[in-house]
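Sequence, please.
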């Protein structure tokens, strides 16, 4: 054991235990010969250069103490490793027992598990990025009036209709699912939810049960903000195009078209809208006066009757508000995207076919 720790100590101990040579007297009682005297002197020099036995014992004892300390540290580290492994194993076993395999889950259980894996804020954030990129793909290098960048966010109620909005809305849903799964695949396996563990994308031609359930959750998440976006688009734009007592027109029809980066507050998108209003919200139609209402002002009031209200607006700003309502997330859309949206609204406004 000592040899394994420090080989030079063995040599020191061995040399310390060897007795020094003794000079013997001559048989005739005379003094030692010159050779004897030289041997004795050499023995004295050698013994003087050797380390004392006490120092060797101290060194050996120190080595053994250091070795014992290392053993204690190894034992402590071994206990820590065993404790951590046991903890991880218990957690994995508990997780395995409590998380049912996807094949044994009911539809409600699968939907619940996927909702935990993909919270609503995460879906909306991914939706904003996907919608921004898809609208950029519609406008190519330069936004134009021919590219419809609006209706894909407002598909009809029936998802079976093979229309332009439905086709592109399906692409948006699949792209959002793809983005969510790719983000999940970057996590360590032990941190991935078990329902999507190991999944890194969606195959549109061979969607499995998890993919269809994910698509359902994404569409349901889109439903609420899309309803609000529909209302906002109706109140700010569509209402003035379909009612007889309202009008909307370009404030400066001959204004020059700005660049995609200069659309904000541009005269090209300036509009003037008028509508007929009353205190009760009920107005005369085709010469027939509005029925009496408790909200009507008293006789002789300046507020009595119908009034024409004029509003100034900008299609670019309306586009920004509608896009934010569609995704319901804090996302700054690129100027080219908003510009393209505003061009679509402007094309609807001046179209003779609306």
């Amino acid at each position: 054991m000592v040899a394994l720790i420090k080989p030079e100590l063995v040599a020191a101990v061995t040399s310390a235990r060897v007795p020094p040579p003794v000079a013997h007297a001559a048989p005739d009682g005379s003094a030692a010969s010159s050779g004897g005297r030289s041997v004795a002197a050499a023995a004295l020099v050698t013994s003087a250069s050797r380390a004392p036995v006490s120092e060797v014992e101290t060194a050996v004892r120190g080595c053994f103490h250091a070795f014992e300390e290392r053993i204690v540290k190894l034992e402590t580290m071994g206990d820590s490793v065993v404790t951590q492994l046991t903890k991880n194993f218990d957690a994995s076993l508990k997780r395995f027992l409590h998380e049912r395999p996807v094949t044994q889950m009911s539809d409600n259980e699968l939907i619940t598990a996927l909702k935990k894996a993909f919270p609503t804020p995460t879906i909306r954030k991914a939706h904003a990025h996907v919608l921004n990129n898809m609208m950029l793909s519609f406008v190519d290098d330069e936004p134009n009036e021919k590219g419809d960048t609006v209706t894909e966010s407002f598909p009809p109620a029936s998802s079976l209709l093979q229309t332009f909005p439905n086709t592109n809305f399906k692409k948006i849903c699949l792209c959002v699912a793809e983005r969510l799964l790719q983000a999940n695949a970057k996590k360590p396996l032990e941190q991935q939810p078990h329902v999507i563990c190991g999944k890194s994308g969606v195959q549109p031609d061979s969607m499995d049960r998890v993919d269809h359930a994910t698509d359902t959750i994404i569409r349901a998440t889109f439903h609420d903000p899309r309803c609000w976006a529909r209302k906002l688009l109706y109140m700010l734009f569509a209402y003035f195009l379909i009612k007889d007592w309202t009008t909307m027109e370009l404030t400066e029809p001959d204004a020059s078209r700005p660049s995609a980066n200069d659309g904000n507050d541009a005269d090209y998108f300036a509009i003037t809208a008028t509508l007929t209003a009353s205190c009760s919200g009920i107005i005369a139609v085709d010469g027939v006066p509005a029925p009496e209402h408790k909200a009507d002002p008293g006789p002789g009031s300046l507020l009595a009757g119908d009034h024409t209200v004029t509003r100034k607006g900008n299609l670019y700003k309306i586009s920004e508000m509608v896009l934010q309502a569609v995704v319901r997330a804090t996302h700054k859309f690129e100027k080219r995207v908003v510009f393209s949206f505003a061009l679509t609204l402007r094309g609807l406004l001046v179209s003779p076919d609306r």
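The longest strand covers residues 270-277.
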